[in-house]
Amino acid sequence: MTRRPMPAFRPARQRGVAVLVAMLVVALAATAATAFVFRTQVEWRRLENLMRQDQARWVLRTAERWGAAVLRDDARLSSVDHPREAWATQLPPVEAEGYRVSGHMEDQDGRFNLNNLVVNGAADVRQVRLFARLLGHLKLPASLSAAVVDWMDADEVPQDGEGAESAYYMTRPTPYRAANRPLVNLNELLRVKGFDRQVLAALRPFVTVLPGRTPVNVNTARAEVLAALVEQLSLNDAYDLVARRDRAYYRNIQDFRQALRANLSAPDDLIAVSSSYFVVQARIRHERLSLGSHALFHRAGTSPPTLVWRAEL
């Protein structure tokens, strides 16, 4: 029986398959190596960014300490606070360790403290009227005053039919109860009846949330706050007061009283010419990194100011 010869092309085909397999292995290895290098670069960049963020936060803390030191020195020099003092000066951009830092301070006692509205769980009538006047000057609904009081007071009885207690909030798509405590921050108002982001944005420059009860610093208050503070004071007259005050600040409460028309007055316990609460804002930039913070400090006498809270911007 004649044996057929083996095909001559088989060894060549096997060699071709081996070459293809080898090329595939090399390609897979190269892909794996590339992916490893890429992941390594990504993780390194992530670690680098985290390190830069940590460094940036330390620089922001330094800016806060600078603000606290300025406030302490200011208290040693004067018992009156007004917009021409060092604390009110915008910090020009400063280069530090490759970071560009800028910041400024804002007096909070020149604003109406919403936590003044309720004392010992009940509404303070004078403060409620003051807030209602402020809302009027800002062309915002007066009913917002009752809603804020109900959010903070201890009872569950709506104010004058315009407020809202837990019975109202429990009917919301996502039910919740009235806080029945002082406000923690201004953003909490977004949970209160009648408030939205537009209303809050209009109100934010004129109000604040501070621990306890605070008077209004008439040296730093805006015209709308002064017009709310002094009953029967028109908004135009309040703007005139601010213009004259910016040329010569009030050294004491009596100075402010003398600046008012003869038939106008403000209760001593509602006004002041100094401030105890300040927000220190700082912003830091480094290449693609931008980080900001604001911190509330409480200053009592000439002691170093104490940090009340801190938040990132």
What is the fold's blueprint, element by element?
Blueprint: H1 10-77, E1 91-96, E2 99-107, E3 112-113, E4 118-119, E5 122-123, H2 125-137, H3 143-152, H4 166-169, H5 197-203, E6 207-208, E7 216-217, H6 223-229, H7 235-247, H8 253-259, E8 271-272, E9 277-286, E10 289-298, E11 306-312
Parallel strand pairs: 3-6, 7-8
Antiparallel strand pairs: 1-2, 2-9, 4-5, 9-10, 10-11
Helix pairs in contact: 2-3, 2-6, 6-7
Shape: elongated
How many runs of DSSP E, i.e. beta strands? 11
Gap between N and C termini: 94 Å
Order of helices and strands: HEEEEEHHHHEEHHHEEEE
Look at the structure and give the mean pLDDT.
87
- Overall radius of gyration: 32 Å
In the predicted model, the low-confidence regions spanning at least 5 consecutive residues are none
Measured as a percent range, the helix fraction is 40-55%
Largest sheet: 5 strands, antiparallel
Strand content: 15-25%
* Protein structure class: alpha+beta
The main sheet orders its strands as 1-2-9-10-11
Q: What's the tally of helices?
A: 8
